[in-house]
Here is the input.
Amino acid sequence: MASVETVAEHERILREIESTDANCIGPTLRSVYDGQEHGLFMEKLDGRIRNHDRDIEKMCNHHFQGFVDSITELLKVRAEAQKLKSQVTDTNQRLQGDGKGLVTCMDDLRQCRLQQRNIATTIDKLTHCLPVLQMYSKLQEQMTLKRYYPALRTLEQLEQTCLPRVGQYRFCSIMAENIPRLRTLIKDTAMSQLRDFLESIRKHSNKIGETAMKQAHIQRAAVGRRLRKEAGLGAGSEMDGHGSSPMSEQDSGILDVEDEDDDEVPGAQDLVDFSPVFCCLHIYSVLGAREEFENYYRKQRRKQARLVLQPHSDMHETLEGYRRFFNQIIGFFVVEDHILHTTQGLVNRAYVEELWELALSKTIAALRTHSSYCSDPDLVLDLKNLIVLFSDTLQGYGFPVSQLFDMLLEMRDQYGEILLKKWNLTFRQALDQDNYSPIPVATEEDYRQLTSQFPFQDPDLDKLPFPKKLPFSEFVLKVYCQLKEFIYACLKYSEDLHLSSTEVDDMIRKSTNLLLTRTLSHCLQYAIKKNNVGLAELVQVILNTTHLEASCVYLEEFISNITNVPPDTANATKLYGTSTFKDARHAAEEEIYTNLNAKIDQFLQLADYDWTAAQGGGAPSDYLSDLIAFLCSTFSVFTHLPGKVAQTACMSACKHLASSLLKLLLQPDVRQVSLGALQQFNNDVKECERFARTDPVPGFQGDTLLLAFSDLRQLLDLFIQWDWTTYLADYGKPTCKYLRVNPHTALVLLEKMKDTNRKGNMFAQFRKNERDKQKLLDTVIKQLRSLISTHQA
Here is the structure.
C-alpha cells in the first residue's frame, strides 16, 4: 500500500499537469518516471481522466438544447445573407464606376510621392556627404593653422568613420587618395617642429639652468632663514668679525638674485614650450611610429648632451665660464626630467640615469682639469659654492650628486695649497714691511684696540703710564689676524659639504697646521736668514715668536668656538703652532750667535799687530776697544730676551772672541812673535777680561764668563812670566797652574819667538845674555817636544 507521502506527491503532480502549459510538462512527467511508483501514478492518472470525462459529459448534456436552438437561428439567417450579398454587389458596381476618377488622381499622387521619395533620398545622401565635406574642410583649416595632431585625429575619423558611410563617390576616392599624402605631410612637419624645438632648447639651456639654480638658491635661502628663525637668530642677523659665518653664494657673486620675495622665479616649463614634443609624440603614436620617434629623440638628445658636456678651453679663467657650463648641464637635465614626468615612455628612468652617469663623469673630469689651473683662492671658493648650488639644484630633481661632493672634498686639498701660496706671500710681505720695533701706544684707546686684535696680557705693562710700548712688533698682529683669516677661509670652504662639526674641525686644524709648519715656518726662516737682517731684528723676531707661541692656546679656542667642537674632544688634532714658533725662535737664536760671531770676525779683520815690536803699548788696540763697545751696546738690547738666550749669546761671543784671538796669534802667516807683541796682545786680552767682569748680561754666577778667556790668559802668563819650570814640572797634574795650555800651542808660539830672536840682531849672538836666552829657549823647545812625544806614545 502506497505511503501517504507518495499519494500527496502524485496529487501535486496531477494538479501541476492540469494547470501547466503542455510545453512545460516534460520535467513534471520526468520526475514521475525517475521515481519507483510510476505504475501507481498511472492508475491515479486514469482515475483522474475518468473523472474529467464524466464532468465533460455532464456539461454537454447540460448545453445540448441550447445548441439545437442555435442551429435553428442560423438557418433563418442564411436567407437574409443572400439578400445582403446581392445588395453588396450592386453597391460595388456603382462604386467602381464612381472610382475611375479617383484612380486617376491616385496615379498622379503616386507620381508625386515617388518624386518626394527621390528628393528625400537625395537629401539623405547629401546629409551623409555633408559631414565628410565639413570634416575635410575642418582638416584643411587645421592644416592651415598648423594644428597637426587634431588634424591627424580628424583625418583618422574621416578615413575610418565618415568615408565608409558615404560610399563610392568620386570626391571620396580623391579624399582617400590624399589621406596617405596628408599623413606624410603631417609627420614631416611634426618632425621639423621637433628639430626646431631641439635647436631651441639647446640655445636656451643656459637660461633654463640659470632659472633652475635661482629657484634652488631661493629655496635654500628660505630654509636657511627658517632654521635661523627657529634658532632664534632671525633672518637678517649676522655675527661680527670674529664669529661671522662665511659669505653665501649671493654675497660672493655666485648668483645675481634680486629680492626673491618681490617676483617669483618662473619654472622651466614656463620658459620652454614643450608642445612640439607632445604633438610629435602623439602624431607618431597615432601613425604607429612611436618607436622610431623615441629612438630619434634619444639619439639627438645624446648628441646634444655631448655638446653640452664639452667645456670651453678658457672656462677656468672666470667664474662666468663655470656658471655657463653648469647652467647648460642643468638646463639639459631639467628638460629631460620634465619630459620624463610628462610623457609616457618617450624617455624612461634608465635612459635619464645613463645620461646622468655620462654627464657626471665628464663634468667631474672637466672640473678636475680646469680647477687645477686656478691659482686664486677666491675663485676656487666661488667655484665650490657654485658646484654646491649646482649639486643641490640637480639633487632637487632627483639626480644623485654624491660624487660631486666627493670631488669637492678632493678640491679641498687644492684649495688648501692655493691658500698656503697666498698666505706665503702675505706673511713675507708682512715680514718685509715690519720695522722690527716694539709697537708704541700713545693712549688707552689705542692700547685696547691693539689688545683686542691680539691676546696680550702683561700686568706690569698695564701699570706703566702712557705712552708706552708693546714688546712685539706689527708683525705679530698681522700674523695672528692672518691666521684667523686663514681659518675663516678654510671654514668657508667646508660649508654646505654635508660634513659633521668634527670633520670640519679636523679639516681646519690640519690645514692650519700646514700653514704653521710649512708656510709660516718657511717665511720665518726666510726672514731670519736674510742677508741684511741685524741683531736687533733677530732679537725682535725672538720676542715676536715668543708671544705668537703664547697665542696658540687662543687659536685653539678660536677654532673650537667657530666649529662648536670642544678642544678636549677625543682624537682631536692639536695645533703645531708651539713647535713652529719654538723652531723659529731657536733658528733666530742660532742666527744671533752666528751674526754676533761674524761681527766679531769683522772687527778682528781690522787687527793690525806689529808682531816684531820690541815693547808693547800700555792701552788696548783700537779695533778691540771698538769691538768691546759694540758688544756692550749689543748686549744692552738683549735685556728683553729670555735670560738663557742672552747668556748663551754672551758666552758664545766671548768664546768665539777668545778662540779667534788665539787663532790670530797662531796663524801661519805670523812667522815671528816678539815679547813686546805678546805684551800688546796681553793688554787686549785684559780688556776682554775687563769686559767679562762687567757682567754685560745678568745671570752669570761669579767669574763664569772669564772662563772663556782662561786658555789665553794661562798661555800669555806662561810666556810673559816665562814660568816654564812650573809648567814642565806640573804638566798633567790636576792642580797644574797652566792646566789649559796645550803643549802643541806653546811649541808653535815658541818657534815663532825663536825665529824672532834669531833675526832680531845679527850681533845678538855675541852677547852673553842673548846667548843664554837662546840656549834656554832651545832647551824649553826640546823639553816640550819630548813632553809631546812622551804623551803621544
